Amino acid sequence: MLEVNRRAENSAWKSALIESSDPVVQRASEMILNIERANWQLLVNLPSESRVLDVGAGMGTNSHALSLYYREVVALEPVAERVRFMQQRFAQEGLSNIRILRSSIWELPFGQESFDLVAMNGVLEWVAEGQTGDPGELQEKALSKIHRLLRPNGYLYLGIENRIMLGHFFGCPDPHCSIPFTAILPRPLAHWYARRHGLSGYRNYLYSGRGYRKLLQRAGFNHVEIYIAVPSYNHPRFLIPLKNNIFSHYSQNFSGVQTRWSRRFVHRVLLNSGLLKNLQYSYVILARK
Hints:
The chain is an alpha/beta fold and 289 residues long. The chain has 10 helices and 8 strands. The model has no long low-confidence stretch (mean pLDDT 93).
């Protein structure tokens, strides 16, 4: 990040990413450049005068995109290097309606009912890091804080992975702690398993679609819409409602043909049983106050 920021200060912020020799930056640059990641905002139908809070704004992609539609965006980010990058990015793009604030979800200097929209893209699973207490309770507490910040009929956006993603059952590493099976194990067993791999415990709780709905309802959100994000919430080409059977049509016609007969067989069985839509990689969730 220090090298990227040095480049951004002396050239275009986009060039600082694209021309980086760091393979991690190269992999992340497509996501950081893609402001279409925030196209989910077209589903909330809020007026342009709305005020938006982007929690865990990171490299500023969602804040950048949302500032093109709404009067004011507050980009909240605790990491100093990311704050510096956003300063360069927004200044070079002439985005004067974004205010950057270095802080976290646990230190929100705003009054109740201050925002019409709050975005949390890849953030909820991290809120327990550095905190003491049960991760699930901390996630509920964080969501309750967001609920209080929203004005009546305001929206919370969540972009997040699915706990019961199919790959987790076949040993794909958890995308946050990099340990296989932790997401799908019972929580006490996941804590033990993570400690066996050198961590202090398992803190990055994910949930199924039903689990996210229950968590949000406990935090005060009674209107929750869940969409399957394909291929992921960071690269959303399709947002497919989880509650109906549209995913079956997508899977049969747009998801590509599995080359191996065993994969085609498993795909067909899971699709016909109605389970496949619940085993996808990630969700976009819109919860209304």
